[in-house]
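Lab manual, section 2.4: Encoding a predicted structure.

Procedure: take the sequence of the chain (181 residues), apply the prediction step described in section 2.3, and record the output as structure tokens. A sample record is shown.
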Amino acid sequence: MDIATEFLSATINAFDANKRLADRAVEQLPDDTLHSALDANTNCIAVIMKHIAGNLTSRWTDFLTSDGEKPGRDRDSEFVDSFTSRRELLEFWERGWTCLRDALNSLSPEDLGKTILIRGEPHSVPLALARSLGHTCYHIGQIVQIARIQAGDHWKTLTIPKGKSEQFNQDNWGGTGKSHS
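Recorded output:
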């Protein structure tokens, strides 16, 4: 087994799985709900999406050759909801994810031995990957939780429905998944 190739593949799969969670959560909400915060101390989903996309664009543009905090990034503006439509929000969101995917798909196993900079601080490529994945997943969890709250009784679960694990196991593996020793 080539551990470097497996690591890159696992990282791409984890990013993709989390994006699917966010996309499926956002699809369940009307446009205006994307711009509604739960309270004065919570970011709305549109702002969280804007921040993730801005971060991904900054970190993954010229990933191996320039600092991950680009001089032109205005991080503070990522926390201001400036989108006028769902389409505009989703286009910005997709640009960030495309930047990430393009960079990840261009990495070779040999690149894992390199060092990059984020805000002038050296990071091994595996550390930078883990840092970006952790940051992104943290915010994806926020999007999903806020969407779940806002959708209320109309929420369609993104994973195995509560109380349905045995049925899921039976449907998918012909068993309960419980050990019978």
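Check your result against the sample. The chain has one domain: 3-173.
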